[in-house]
């Protein structure tokens, strides 16, 4: 049991999170077009492959495997999966709408009705169990045509395409859905612009001017999404989504302290500052100068800036998996991996099977810092442990290591709430096993529901409840008061 003084709000939004490109499958069914995720090969070298100068988004099934094409076939199993979420007690379910399922190319004037009908069914299935949908509008899955023919988000034309997509989604589902997120982990483009911006070396991904222009275009598109939603129904809440990696100076050397301050500004805060505060932060000129750029190098209009100011987001959502350290003086060369970005190894932290640092205290720090900075509600919409699960002879999966990770991070959220941070919900990532975004593997499992599928796409797709399923069920039923697992009967 957690500290008696730690009480989650009665309306706290417990649930889980997924993304269309990692679990849906049905990549060529019912009029869906290809997305950028469909062109990403599976395996640990997927980003190495896409960073080659000759990578042109060609899908070559004779050379690579494409696990996103099948996902876990949620397209045909959504009723079964949502029923399992309901059994766990979900209050909310965060999922994304595949843009290319609604607009197959991305530039059409009329949407694909079959795609809209699929999400009608998914949303209605959630509501049948009193699960509130939380919809991500763009989760690493822009239509492939927009990357290949239009050059990704560096092209301002994508603003109007996205605006049309959002308008269709809000008008179709806005009377049934209260929470929307605009761009998933928008700041991840600082490391991998392929995912959020559709930029690779062959279409300008190595040019930071393109990355910053793409961000600006997304900031404008995000504000347009807020306007569309609020015009439709002022009670709809729209949030930004930031990949947050708490950052520490490696030691007390002032050089490292300054470098850490700037790392936080440049990575953790920049995109949030624009979307939440509605204006570019004071350190923008310093950030641009790192890459030999000024604001004059970007296409930013007075109308853009007025829109950003008038339509900031209503809340802040984050993914949090790990923290990093900053060291600039050369006293260590030890590094670790992370969520689309790595960093200096922190000697005080353990790491996961995939070399990500495990740091629940970092989540408390993140929530305290973000709420102090923005004074807007915070939603932890991703957090979890990728691990290798073993199916025992009796068919069970004893994933105490996952329970330990989730327990410690839920405790950190409770402590942040005690600190005064307004945290409204928690949806751990990959509540059901799915294809990993960073490595394109099934063997890197996050879920509390096991899916019988291997890295080669072989398996029965049978769903099984892990030990963590029953643990999280009790966490939700007690509103976070009971986090231990010693009394579970599994």
UniProtKB/TrEMBL annotation:
<dbReference type="GO" id="GO:0008422">
    <property type="term" value="F:beta-glucosidase activity"/>
</dbReference>
<protein>
    <submittedName>
        <fullName>6-phospho-beta-glucosidase</fullName>
    </submittedName>
</protein>
<dbReference type="InterPro" id="IPR017853">
    <property type="entry name" value="GH"/>
</dbReference>
<feature type="active site" description="Nucleophile">
    <location>
        <position position="382"/>
    </location>
</feature>
<dbReference type="GO" id="GO:0016052">
    <property type="term" value="P:carbohydrate catabolic process"/>
</dbReference>
<dbReference type="InterPro" id="IPR001360">
    <property type="entry name" value="Glyco_hydro_1"/>
</dbReference>
<dbReference type="Pfam" id="PF00232">
    <property type="entry name" value="Glyco_hydro_1"/>
</dbReference>
<dbReference type="InterPro" id="IPR018120">
    <property type="entry name" value="Glyco_hydro_1_AS"/>
</dbReference>
<keyword id="KW-0378">Hydrolase</keyword>
<comment type="similarity">
    <text>Belongs to the glycosyl hydrolase 1 family.</text>
</comment>
<dbReference type="InterPro" id="IPR033132">
    <property type="entry name" value="GH_1_N_CS"/>
</dbReference>
<keyword id="KW-0326">Glycosidase</keyword>
<dbReference type="GO" id="GO:0005829">
    <property type="term" value="C:cytosol"/>
</dbReference>
């Amino acid at each position: 049991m957690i500290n008696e003084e730690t009480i989650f709000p009665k309306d706290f939004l417990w649930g889980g999170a997924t993304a269309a490109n990692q679990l849906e499958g049905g990549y060529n069914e019912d009029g869906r077009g290809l997305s950028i995720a469909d062109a990403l090969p599976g395996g640990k070298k997927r980003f190495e492959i896409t960073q080659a100068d000759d990578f042109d988004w060609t899908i070559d099934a004779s050379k690579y495997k494409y696990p996103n094409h099948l996902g876990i076939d949620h397209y045909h199993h959504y009723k079964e999966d949502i029923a399992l979420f309901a059994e766990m007690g979900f209050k909310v379910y965060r999922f994304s709408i595949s843009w290319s399922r609604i607009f197959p190319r991305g530039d059409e004037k009329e949407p694909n009705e079959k795609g809209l009908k699929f999400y009608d069914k998914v949303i209605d299935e959630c509501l049948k169990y009193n699960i509130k949908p939380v919809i991500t509008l763009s989760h690493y899955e822009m239509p492939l045509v927009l990357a290949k023919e239009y050059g990704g988000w560096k092209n301002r034309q994508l603003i109007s395409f996205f605006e049309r997509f959002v308008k269709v989604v809000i008008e179709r589902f806005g009377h049934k859905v209260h929470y929307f997120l605009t761009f998933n982990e928008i700041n991840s483009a600082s490391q991998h612009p392929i995912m959020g911006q559709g930029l690779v070396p062959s279409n300008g991904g190595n040019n930071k001017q393109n990355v910053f222009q793409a961000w600006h275009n997304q900031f404008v598109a995000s504000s347009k999404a807020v306007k569309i939603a609020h015009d439709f129904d002022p009670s709809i809440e729209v949030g930004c989504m930031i990949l947050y990696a708490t950052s520490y100076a490696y030691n007390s050397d002032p050089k490292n302290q300054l470098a850490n301050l700037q790392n936080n500004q440049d990575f953790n805060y920049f995109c949030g500052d624009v979307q939440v505060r509605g204006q570019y932060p004071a350190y923008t000129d310093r950030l641009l100068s790192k890459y030999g750029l000024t604001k004059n190098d970007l296409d930013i209009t007075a109308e853009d800036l007025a829109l950003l100011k008038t339509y900031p987001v209503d809340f802040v959502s984050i993914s949090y998996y790990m923290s990093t350290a900053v060291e600039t003086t050369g006293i260590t060369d030890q590094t670790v991996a992370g969520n689309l970005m790595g960093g200096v190894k922190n000697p005080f932290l353990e790491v996961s099977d995939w070399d990500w640092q495990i740091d629940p205290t970092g989540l408390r720090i993140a929530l305290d810092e973000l709420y102090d900075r923005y004074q807007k509600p915070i939603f932890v919409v991703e957090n979890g442990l990728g691990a290798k699960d073993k199916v025992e002879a009796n068919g069970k999966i004893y994933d105490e290591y996952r329970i330990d990770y989730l327990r410690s991070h839920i405790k950190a959220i409770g402590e942040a709430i005690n600190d005064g941070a307004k945290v409204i919900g928690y949806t751990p990532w990959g509540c059901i096993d799915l294809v990993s975004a960073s490595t394109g593997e099934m063997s890197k499992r996050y879920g509390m529901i096991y899916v019988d599928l291997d890295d080669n796409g072989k398996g029965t797709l049978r769903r099984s409840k892990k030990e963590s399923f029953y643990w999280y069920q009790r966490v939700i039923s007690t509103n976070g008061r009971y986090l231990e697992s010693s009394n579970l009967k599994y």
